[in-house]
Amino acid sequence: MKSNQLLSSRRRNRVRAGISKRAKGRFRLSVFRSGRHIYAQVIDDSEGRTLAAASSLDKDMRSKGNINPGMDVAGVVGKLIASRAKDAGINKVVFDRGAYLYHGRVRALADAAREAGLSF
């Protein structure tokens, strides 16, 4: 039986290959989630630079107090990454869910980013 790490990396590569075909010069909104936190970055793949980033560990999140982990935090991070991307002059991105299913916290982050004005 193959290890979970190998299967996860294959799934991530398969998703990223599809994204690179559809990107057409747009930046990539990449999502990483751990057991406790969620992270989002807007990445320029042509230069290999991160243009905007947000996570549940940001100072802005800590100042809001104790937000329940999970979907609520993912929604706040989605709004935060959208506002930071718009400040950087980015309106259109390609969503990179990585090896995660489009469900739960990943979907909450994507929906909140769309509501805040980011289009993908």
Describe this structure in words.
It contains four helices and four strands. The protein is an alpha+beta fold and 120 residues long. It has a single domain, classed as Nucleotidyltransferase, domain 5, CATH 3.30.420. A four-stranded mixed sheet has the order 3-2-1-4. A hairpin with a 4-residue loop joins strand 2 and strand 3. Helix 3 runs parallel beside helix 4. The protein is globular and about 40 Å long. It starts with a helix and ends in a 5-residue tail after the last helix. The mean pLDDT is 90.
The tally of structural domains comes to 1
Q: In CATH, what is the class?
A: Alpha Beta
Radius of gyration: 14 Å
Distance between the termini: 36 Å
Supply the CATH architecture: 2-Layer Sandwich
At CATH level 3, the topology is Nucleotidyltransferase, domain 5
Low-confidence stretches: none
Number of strands: 4
